[in-house]
Amino acid sequence: MSDPDDKADKADRKPDAPGELDPAGSMPLAAEDDEPDPAGSMPLAAEDAEDEETVVGRAWRRASTIGPVMVDVAKDVAHALGPTSPYHRHDFIVIALAAVVVAAAAFGHRRMVEPTVEVFSTRGLEFTRPATWLAPEEVPFATPRLVGAEPPRPRPPDAELPYHVVYTSTLDPDVRMEVRIEAAPTWRNIIAGLELDRRTRWGELYGADTSRVRTIAGHDWLRTRFRYAYAPEKGDEPRIGHAVELATVDRTRLYAVTIYGTARRVAKLEEQIAPTLRVASHTGMPLVPQSSRLQPAYPASVARTFGSTVMVLVADVIDGRLRAVGGGSGVIVGGDGSILTNHHVLDRTEDRLHDVFVIGRFVGIDRPPRLVCAGRPSASKLQPEADLALVKCDMDLDGRPWTPASGGPTWPALAGAHRTDLSPGQRLWVLGYPDVGGGSLTVLQGLVEGFTSEDGTLGKDYIKTDAALSLGSSGGPVVDDAGDLVGVATAQRRRIGNNGTLIKDGLVRPLAAAAPLLAIVRAGWVPREGRTSVEIEPTAIDAEAEGIRISTRVVDAANDQPVPGALVMVLRPGVTADKVDVNRLDDMVIAWGRSGTSGEVFLRQPVPAPGTYTVMVVVDGYVPLIGSDALRLAEDTPAYFDPWGEVRLEAE
Is it the case that residue 223 has pLDDT exceeding 50? Predict the structure, then answer.
């Protein structure tokens, strides 16, 4: 029930003035009696207030992410312009001032968050870098992995080059930037040289991702993205880091800027640094590999030889660093990884070989080869009189023992035959890795012009072709339309034509000249330091005191003519055909002899009986013959014995 006093109060109370708030702060009573808007919206006064609150609230929320100082300013402005302010109906002013506050706060926040920058400028290189990094520290170059050498010597105080410093971020010690400036390399294959530098530094902890040429302010820079493994502190779990190297050369110097860190941080720093890179001169060596647009159309049989064509990079230790100093090409001639190339590719001076060679394998047209393994020229088979050499990797790029059979891609040997029936006008294809730029595989087309001698007179020392051979092509395979190997690109000879023009003849060493080296491949070999001779012959074996005296006759299988000079060897028990190493014949051979002009051969040492032995017969111009268990001697075998009657050899 209602109180009578309340009724009296209500009767005596006058209506409120229009627009006056009741003590509880509610809307005017008249508003409570208003009919709803036909569209179901709030009354206009309430709608305006909500719009004002939304704009101001949004401004306040944006400002709240900027910082305590800007938040206080934004709150003051929001309060002054909010619904309780006498200015709350000035919608345009509210929105405009709120936008100004947000913009000013964002600008202040950006200035506080983004670091300032400085200009790096020294020794012909200039770019913009963060100013918040620690002062640069000079760092030594990596000690060679492939050859024994003293650590690189530090740069003398008065020397300008080489310059190698590292900047470290004050926010994250794993984020670094290295700057390297040094004399321009003598070898023009910049891409392969830089790849060897990275491999030397990181070894098996290195993995290349992509490499491309980027033009910055009209100058070509090689951008290489790679990964590497590292441990922040000794004993920590290894981590995978990301890096981008930007490198170029001008007339006298090589410049390289490398950024290390997480993929996101590296990308952000590259966006800041790369566009500002400048060098003193725009004249330098080309970085772009040969374009496939310049390659002639070639048959599929020639394309199948690409995988058998390799790059042979040679390097020397210079001032404690392993530096790429030159290179050539080569052709795989054995499934064991044996590679035929030119002797002058490995020859540093008349009496000294290069310290190491590195083999690059084909990965695609217009792409530089992938460096896979290394070896020593001083452990290779050398035939300097024919300007030929046989090389084989025996270590990985960390300098550890390695063989082509250790794993990875196969080594497809390029089949070939001795060709003396080439005729003028016959088409040839020259494959190789020229020095210029990235040294991608190049295919040249040429015609046979005939044969020539060493001194340019009549002879068959070289196949002469009009193909334009260039530096870096030396040692590369020369094939016919069927893809058969006919020779090795060796040199270029210049002469003056009848009309006074300069003519360049490409000289190809015929495959027949490599017969001694190919015989080594077929017999089997393992690189050994100092064993460079191509002669296959034991020098000092331990002869048995007693045994059977073996003799036989060696003839040509095609015409039964005697074959003089054939080396017949009986191997020790347990040495099978797949274990033969011509560099260890003294350890493997138990008896041997050479055939005379009549083909007759008498082994110099007795062979113990009873026993079963592997026999090997080799001679230039014939396919080596290796027969496991080819000699069986019983206790009652005669003291002088011809086990085969004759040995028949197939001509190559």
Answer: yes
Residues 6+ apart with CB under 8 A from 49: 83, 88
Confidence of residue 447 (pLDDT cuts 50, 70, 90): very high
Q: Which two tokens stand for residue 632?
A: 């069986």
**pTM of the full structure:** 0.79
**CATH code at 427-514:** 2.40.10.10
What confidence tens digit (pLDDT) does each residue in 22-53 have? Answer: 433 333 333 333 343 433 333 333 334 344 44
Q: What pLDDT shows up at residue 378? A: 97
Cis ω for the linkage preceding 162 (within 30 of 0): yes
* Interatomic CA distance for residues 346 and 398, integer angstroms: 21
Nearest alpha-carbon partner for 310 in 356, 361, 254, 252: 361
For 117-279, give the CATH class: alpha beta
Cβ contact 85:94 at 8 Å: no
Cβ 329 vs Cβ 312: under 8 Å: yes
How does DSSP assign 602-622, residue by residue? E-SS-B-SSEEEEEEEE-TTB
DSSP secondary structure string for all residues of 114-181: SPPEEEEEETTEEEEEETTSPPPEE-PPPPPSSS--PPPPPPPTT---SEEEEEE-SS-TT-EEEEEE
Q: What is the third-level CATH fold of 535-649?
A: Immunoglobulin-like (2.60.40)
Asked if residues 228 and 205 have their Cβ atoms less than 8 Å apart, the reply is yes
- Give every strand in the sheet of 117-122, ordered side by side: 117-122, 125-130, 278-279
The DSSP-derived string for 288-326 is SPPPGGGSPP--HHHHTTGGGEEEEEEEEEETTEEEEEE
β-bridge pairing 253-261 and 239-249: antiparallel
> Six-digit token pair at 592?
């041997």
The distance of Cα 1 from the centroid of its chain, to the nearest Å, equals 98
pLDDT score recorded for residue 36: 39
Please calculate the CA angle 642-646-647 and round it to the nearest 5 degrees.
115
Q: How far apart are CA 463 and CA 431, in angstroms?
A: 15
- The superfamily in CATH containing domain 294-406 is Trypsin-like serine proteases (2.40.10.10)
Confidence of residue 648 (pLDDT cuts 50, 70, 90): very high
